[in-house]
Amino acid sequence: MNGDFPTFKQYDAHFVHRRLALGPVPEPRDAEEIRSRGIRGIINLVAVCARPQMAYVQALPLSIQWRHLGFWDGAGVMRIEPGTISLTPVYAQFLIEQAALFVREYSPVLIHCVGGVGRSGNVAALLYAALEGVEPEEAVERMRAFRPQLARFSRESFWRDCRVEELVQVARRVLTGEASEDTPPFVSCVLQG
Q1: Is a pLDDT exceeding 80 seen at residue 73?
Q2: Nearest-CA neighbor of 99 among 73, 72, 126, 76?
Q3: Which of the pair, 12 or 186, is modelled with greater confidence?
Q4: For 14-175, which CATH class?
Q5: Which of 44, 55, 79, 86 is most exposed by smallest CB count within 10 Å?
Q6: Where in the chain are the domains?
Q7: What is the pLDDT of residues 135-181, one digit of tens each?
């Protein structure tokens, strides 16, 4: 893999693959730097997006697509025992399908959670594994060459109830355009009232 990636000067993000960059929640001031590094899409994995986690979206140019696929990692006000939070297999598959579709359509993509270490690194590890034909644990090790603070892959936590190898296969099929007709298109929620 070529490590000759664009670098971020102000925003604490790193390219970890030619199609993937990882970082924390951007600030509005980071929008121009994100654009200038060629980012075409942003996946937000923050569970609850209050004003501080959403302020940057208004500063993004229209050329950058944005997608929220949040899930909670137990951090924040209510501390949860490590390893007790996991994704349901259905949501995990939806998350990976949607992330892979987004990477396929809008690469390079910036994936962020709050700190750019745990959730974003884990989702990127599954996508990287699909792109490069490696295990998610090896993907994390390779990505650490570019973003050393990445957390290890959480088989006993986030992905505990999931068949990780199947998620990698789902991502690979979507990324290569081999997804079945069962693969849902991008889904948006509409509140009715």
Answers
A1: no
A2: 126
A3: 12
A4: alpha beta
A5: 79
A6: 14-175
A7: 999 999 999 999 999 999 988 888 999 999 999 999 999 999 985 55
Question: Nearest to residue 18, comparing CAs of 92, 99, 128?
Answer: 128
Q: Are 124 and 22 in contact (CB under 8 A)?
A: yes
Q: Residue type at 21?
A: A
6's tokens:
């664009």
DSSP character at residue 112: E
- What is d(CA 64, CA 66) in angstroms, rounded to the nearest whole number? 7
Q: How far apart are CA 124 and CA 111, in angstroms?
A: 7
List beta partners, residue 17: 20
- pLDDT > 60? residue 125: yes
Give the tokens for residue 4. 């000759």
DSSP bridge pairs for 45 = none
Q: How far is CA 148 from the centre of its chain?
A: 17
